[in-house]
Amino acid sequence: QLRRLVGVPQSDDNVDDAGLLLAFAYPDRIALRRGGGGLQYRMANGRGAFFPQPEALATNDVLAVAELDGDKREARIFLAAPLALVEIEEHFAEHIAVVEAVTWDSREQLVAARRQRRLAELVLKDEALTKPPREAVAAAMIAGVREMGLDCLPWTPASAALRARLGFLRRVEGVEWPDLSDAALLDGLEQWLAPWFDGISRRAHLSRLDMAAVVEALLSWELKKRLDAEAPTHVTVPSGSRIPIDYSAEAPVLAVRLQEMFGLAQTPLVAGGRVMLTLHLLSPARRPVQVTQDLASFWANTYKQVKADLKGQYPKHYWPDDPMQAEPTARAKPRGR
Question: pLDDT by residue (tens digit) across 96-120?
Fold first, then answer.
């Protein structure tokens, strides 16, 4: 039709070259079919294109699109011609780039490492990258941890308790102690977590991490030395029991059975004597009966009423009249009584 319109004689030219001609005219509209063998295509300019219903052209994996309905992100194809990948490789070679991409795959929750031959936004060939650079894998894992949140890391009770102790010391003593808040840890993943990512390339691998060792690595030798002295994990109470301290609250908490504290007037201190523990004094059933930071005042003013209440509930336990002179015990009664 075009030949007749412009008065050019007929020839043996192959009309199959129409796709290549359109590709030269509109290289940004070279289009590859999206996966699944459907009617959807992706063009070199990054936009989508589609056929509204099945037709012969839609059987081609590669097209050069001549006409679309406007500037939409997903535009209907009105006019196109078939094109072959070998034609793209031959005639657009100088515009084809080889890209190695190491990224976090949110759906599979792993690092995807691919080598791609790309024409603008089109992926002409995609294959696995067998030995991606370690730094690139670590960077992709960091992106994954940021996306999933710190809860994806294998925090054990011990590592969570260590983090809480350090958080307490930072609040009390200042910035010489590392900031282990959620915001600070997420912001600094590249510095404190990435060095531990050797051989880790998917979420399931994170279970290999020793989070206590990871956190301890943030401390200087001197801070490690001060840690146990200023934020001990346990306190030895008058009964001889070693009771763990909970640093997860704003003020550290010692939850201990009341009878184990008989004879002690001074509330235990931490942080070099600057901070009193909050005592949760427990019944024999380990339910809190008093919360205080002033143990001496409790013995003098409140114990009598607490004793009256608990003696009726737990008559087999030891309830002395004078708690300051009584023998502390972790049993129902001291030995020999």
Answer: 999 999 999 999 999 999 999 999 9
Q: What is the CA radius of gyration of the chain?
A: 36
CA–CA dist 301, 294 (Å, integer): 11
Element (H, E) at 278: strand 278-282
Tell me how far apart the 2 most distant CA atoms of the chain are, in Å.
Answer: 123
Among 279, 268, 201, smallest CA distance to 232 is for 268
Higher-confidence residue of 126 and 332: namely: 126
Alpha helices in the chain (DSSP H): 2-6, 18-25, 85-91, 134-148, 157-173, 182-187, 189-192, 211-216, 221-230, 295-297, 303-313
Instruction: Return the closest-CA partner of residue 29 out of 15, 49, 51.
Output: 49
pLDDT tens-digit map of 55-87: 999 999 999 999 999 777 889 999 999 999 999
How far apart are alpha carbons 43 and 65 in whole angstroms? 9
* DSSP helix/strand/coil, 260: helix
At residue 14, the pLDDT reads: 66
How large is the average pLDDT for residues 143-147?
98
> What gap in Å lies between CA 245 and CA 254, rounded to an integer?
5
Looking at residue 107, the DSSP 8-state letter turns out to be T
CB atoms < 10 A from the CB of 184, how many?
12
